């Protein structure tokens, strides 16, 4: 698939412009003709919107945009602070009220700090996160997205009343009662443990969830959170894991849901995402570190342990293994180069005898 085509297109033909031009008025599409082989046809990459014209406010696509869940989680702390003290800046204020608030507020309690004699580290990295802690942070992010939502915009395909996940009767106030963090955690943990999914898949699940909220202009609320989370997990497990879980496997986990319902929900989820399932490394890293910030602010810090000789040797071995892999990849990618000295032979310096 090149930029020029020399067959199957008449010279008098002209490429058709896409219909969705009104949403991007400044984005011009080139339709110049090639002199040698006929009319110029766009490559698929040429149709992509440049970075300066794209919506940089979408956190699931751009690393510079702030994640939705982190901004939602800061709402509760800011409201408590304003009601309690009302100062201009909490962390810069020296009054007695702000000092007391900083001491008693969750996430700001005493922590373990490294010293010259003891170093505290956790076993979670951006490439290999801790599974249990990551699931807790991801479900807490979902909880804040539900609790501090702007409205209740939803679609019928995600409504639990219209598409129940179990045979149990859905309560009448299901759309008005916000789920607790423990309920969301148990739901996600059950799926991850039954399907044997990884911690990286949980982070990608959160990326897809917030991308759905942004693209489709929806709100995750009590009436749709289970099906939205299930759709995000289903898609993330297929994209991320090499051995993906089939839809029928999720039907065996949930038991009362049909394969046809799963297929329909997955199809709608992909359409609402505009089939954009790409997760850049920068976006993944941003979500990982924002989840760590969320954990620090809600007393869900990753378990810290003193650095021992065994753990130090293990970390050193992992670092050497990664370094060796990087060197091997660099050697394969790097072409062998020859200098000009090898082309003219070896030059010998003249000896001066006195």
TrEMBL record:
The UniProt record lists the keyword Flavoprotein: no
Keywords, comma-separated and alphabetical: Cyclin
Signal peptide start-end: none
InterPro entries referenced in this protein's UniProt entry, alphabetically: Cyclin-like_dom, Cyclin-like_sf, Cyclin_N, Cyclin_Y
Domain Cyclin-like: 186-271
Single GO MF descriptor: protein kinase binding
Family from the record: Belongs to the cyclin family. Cyclin Y subfamily.
Coiled-coil regions listed: none
Protein name, UniProt field: Cyclin Y-like 1
One of the Pfam families matching this protein, by short name: Cyclin_N
């Amino acid at each position: 698939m090149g930029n020029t085509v020399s067959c199957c297109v008449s010279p008098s033909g002209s490429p058709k412009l896409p219909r969705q031009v009104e949403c991007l008025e400044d984005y011009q599409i080139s339709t110049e003709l090639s002199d040698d082989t006929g009319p110029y046809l766009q490559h698929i990459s040429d149709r992509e919107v440049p970075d300066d014209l794209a919506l940089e406010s979408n956190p699931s696509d751009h690393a510079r945009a702030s994640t939705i869940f982190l901004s939602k989680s800061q709402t509760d702390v800011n409201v408590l602070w304003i009601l309690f003290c009302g100062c201009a800046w909490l962390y810069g204020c020296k009054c007695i009220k702000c000092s007391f608030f900083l001491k008693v507020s969750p996430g700001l309690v005493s922590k373990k700090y490294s010293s010259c004699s003891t170093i505290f580290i956790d076993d979670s990295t951006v490439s290999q996160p801790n599974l249990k802690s990551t699931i807790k942070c991801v479900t807490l992010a979902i909880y804040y997205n539900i609790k501090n939502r702007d409205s209740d915009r939803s679609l019928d395909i995600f409504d639990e009343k219209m598409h129940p996940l179990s045979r149990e009767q859905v309560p009448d106030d299901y759309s008005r009662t916000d789920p607790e963090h423990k309920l969301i955690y148990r739901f996600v943990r059950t799926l991850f443990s039954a399907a044997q999914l990884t911690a990286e898949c949980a982070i990608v699940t959160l990326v897809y969830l917030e991308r759905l909220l942004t693209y489709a202009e929806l709100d995750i609320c009590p009436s749709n959170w289970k099906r939205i989370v299930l759709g995000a997990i289903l898609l993330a497990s297929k994209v991320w894991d090499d051995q993906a879980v089939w839809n029928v496997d999720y039907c065996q986990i949930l038991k009362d849901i049909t394969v046809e319902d799963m297929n329909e929900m997955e199809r709608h989820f992909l359409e609402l995402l505009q089939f954009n399932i790409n997760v850049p490394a920068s976006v993944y890293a941003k979500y990982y570190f924002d989840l760590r910030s969320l954990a620090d602010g809600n007393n869900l810090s990753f378990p810290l342990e003193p650095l021992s000789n065994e753990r130090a040797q293990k970390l050193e071995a992992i670092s050497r293994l990664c370094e060796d892999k990087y060197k091997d990849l660099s050697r394969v990618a790097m072409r062998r180069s020859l200098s000009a000295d090898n082309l003219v032979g070896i030059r010998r310096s003249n000896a001066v005898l006195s």
